[in-house]
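seq:
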Amino acid sequence: MNRWWKWAGIAVAALASFAIVALLVVYVASETIISKHYPLGASQLHAASGPDAIARGGHFASAYGCADCHGHDLQGAYIADFGLSSRNLTRLATSFTDADFDRAVRKGLRPDGTSVAEYMPSDAFQFIPDADMADIVAYIHSRKPAGKDIPFPSYDLKTRLGFLIGMAHMDRYWFGRQKPALDLGARHDRGRALAMAACGECHMTALTGGPPDIPGPRPPDLSLVASYGRADFLKFMRTGMAAGNRKLPLMSATARARFSHFSDDELNAIYDYLAARGRRRTGDLSSRNPNAPSSG
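struct:
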């Protein structure tokens, strides 16, 4: 009997040692991914100035989703879907330069050259136009520092395992998978830029639909907007109610929280581009303006 207990103790000790070693390997290997450094590159962006710029920045902070994730006061918020809290931008503004914010938002890089978390869609935000970004930074700097400082996210064992088996990634991973959307010429430049930055997080910046390897239903190719009438599209973006007064998973809530903040001109520019893109991709050229550019 004593011999049995002896061998049982050895087995338990061996299993415990194996578990400790396995955890250490997961931590070290995942930390290599998390702490990888990338070239920062130069940023020439400078915050815009004046009350009009700050007002525009607040507008874009809502429309692009900054306030949706970081809180309407930009002091950070707990995001239940991700199980973590976003950074307090008003506190970051005491140490971040304009270039730091630009690289974090549009390059996915922290000041030390490591990647921001996957939950920050910088891979889509890389297409935010310079002028919009300059206004957003002006708005952030206009906010008085308040609330608690929230550190960079830490990662639990499940997420760290996800890094190792390809089920989770740092944001820089997605830059290699994002491509520009179809270029339909100068007439559609504004709508194209807005669509890539605002819709690219879920539909990919090429707007061809979510990547096939993500779990759950895949967001569709936005060519489908060509089948929407303008009034139905604008109603959807304003109220979250799709044609036929339907509520769609995720998209209805996203439209109300984010896209409803776009101006009529901006939503019309997005619609014009997406509808024209849809017609081009589906080969229905009959309704195109014959004077529209044929490139792209």
